[in-house]
Each structure stands twice: as structure tokens, then as C-alpha cells.
Design goal:
InterPro entries: DUF559, Endonuclease_DUF559_bact, Restrct_endonuc-II-like. The protein is α+β, with helices and mostly antiparallel strands. It has a single domain, classed as VSR Endonuclease (Endonuclease, Chain A). The chain has five helices and four strands; from the N terminus they run ααβββαβαα. The model has no long low-confidence stretch (mean pLDDT 91).
Length: 129
């Protein structure tokens, strides 16, 4: 069963395209493991507009977002915005998991393990086969 599509601000389409074409190194690395339904058969998209945000990686079927945070997320103001963003998206049933860029570079196996575990959890929570 497909989950309903969350509306998004059309103004973000162009920005999302720009972000896809100008991905960070950590995004490019992780994308190698998410694209083409490699993550347990689920389809992830890069830089996906969802509601009033653009999520780094998003799986519509699981309502699962993956965010990669760089150095700017160490600032208090950015961290507060991240919390607000997650609260709003959770109202739509979206679960967000976050990793630091450094984790992707230095501990990719663990990042992939956490993603797989979360995908399996979401699959079970949403009763997907």
C-alpha cells in the first residue's frame, strides 16, 4: 500500500535540482548505497521536497528521510531549526535519521547498518511486505 504523497512547496523544485547537481562528498558517497533500490529494495530519492523542506534522501514508501549534517549543524540556531523541522515532518508520519558527514566518511559500515535497521523497523511499523 502506498502512503499518501505529502504536499510540497513548488518553489523548492528548482532548489532541489540545484542541490542534486551540487551534492556534497558525503551525499555522493551514501547515494552509491541508496540508489537503484539497493537498500533492501526500497526506492530513495535525493534532495526531495517534502512539505516546506528539502530532505537529503527520502523514501516515499517508508516515509523515511535521511539527513547528512555538516559543520553548520553545530551552530545552536541550525540545531533548533532541525528540531522544528523534525517535529513538523513527524506530524505527517515522516521519520528522520541523521548522520554527521564525518560518520559517512569514517564509519560508513555503521551508517549503513543503522539505515538498514531503520528501514526494517519502518517496514514492520507500516506493515509493508
Amino acid at each position: 500500500m502506498r502512503r499518501p504523497i505529502i504536499p510540497y512547496n513548488p518553489k523548492f523544485k528548482e532548489r532541489a535540482r540545484f542541490l542534486r547537481n551540487n551534492s556534497t562528498k558525503s551525499e555522493r558517497l551514501l547515494w552509491k548505497y541508496l540508489k537503484g533500490k539497493q537498500m533492501l529494495g526500497f526506492d530513495f530519492h535525493r534532495q526531495r521536497p517534502v512539505d516546506q523542506y528539502i530532505i537529503d534522501f527520502f523514501c516515499q514508501e517508508l516515509y523515511l528521510g535521511i539527513e547528512l549534517d555538516g559543520y553548520t549543524h553545530h551552530f545552536v540556531e541550525t540545531a533548533k531549526k532541525d528540531v522544528q523541522r523534525e517535529k513538523r515532518l513527524s506530524k505527517f508520519g515522516v521519520k528522520i535519521i541523521r548522520f554527521w558527514d564525518d560518520e559517512v566518511f569514517k564509519d560508513l559500515d555503521n551508517v549503513l547498518r543503522v539505515i538498514k535497521h531503520t528501514v526494517e523497523e519502518r517496514k514492520s511499523e507500516l506493515s509493508l511486505n
